[in-house]
Amino acid sequence: MSDALKISIEELLNNCSKNPHSILGMHVEKDTVIVRALNPHSKNIDVRDVHTSKTYSMKIIDERGLFECRIENRSDPFSYELIHTTFDNHTYSVFDPYSFSPTLSEYDIYLFNQGNHHHIYEKLGCHLKEYGDVKGAAFAVWAPMAKRVSVVGSFNQWDGRVHPMRKLTNSGIWELFIPGLTEGDLYKFEIKTSKDEIYIKSDPYAFYAEKPPKTASVIYDIEKYVWSDQEWMKERKKNDTFKSPVNIYEVHLGSWKQEPDQESVSGFAPYSYRKLAETLVPYVKEMGYTHIELLPVMEHPFDGSWGYQVTGYYAVTSRFGTPEDFKFFIDTCHNHDIGVILDWVPAHFPKDG
Questions:
Q1: Which CATH number applies to 106-218?
Q2: For the whole model, what pTM was predicted?
Q3: Which end of the chain is more exposed for a tag (fewer CB within 10 A), N or C?
């Protein structure tokens, strides 16, 4: 083992590696295939060739959880799974997160560094993806001053040692694709600062989050809803907004109306998005309003802020339901010829996440 490799391994095991893929995953050296994996919760790990089903035992080369398998007289990389056995003898198999190429392209990074990536929410955050036949979740976050960033969640015991991320060139973006994750899994980013401080933060690009006071981000597919407002959208394009009458009803959804709720501290809970669609929309229509203006519905930790202290700009608050429920509310507004205006607050970004 070269001195450079030893240094890289120490950086990885000391939780300060910016490129764990250079150590973990599959590598070919001359006529030997080498696979390394890191998991302090596994007592054994085997490598299984997906095409031949042949398995190779890994040896632990560091008691901090680093395993290695050396396959002699083979120089062709192959698709493989890692079969983990935990200390309580639970066995599970996963495709190796460190066998996949970066989830962002060089062009994405180029645009991001320019400040011209106008769809960066499609790249940063968490996105369910499929690479070939392998399904999972792609994570990316911007943390330019971090010494190390990891994905932590319900799938790895919230342990930052298990899924360290890779820093992409000089962009400040860290990324990782984790196979096997599905909608509903909880996650955050664990960040190690230049001063070796550890912070666990929710994802500012997440599409959904736990219901407050909990703050974990939730892996979520927001493309499932089937809209029915196509006619209204067509008409909106035809109309001259500046020559049309406008009468706006401004509303804070959390306090417009409430109903009894035994689980709530106050004994009451605000209406859900779907109940608001049934009650608020007809009221607004009857009163002659053309638009509803919603006080911020982006995710926020503190009820008393009325939504003006945002932690998730791309996630509607889970206080009132799911993203599909919110889309149903918007759909209902449009189908009743009511436009929707959202208050958007970029200036107040709290540390509560």
A1: 2.60.40.10
A2: 0.93
A3: N
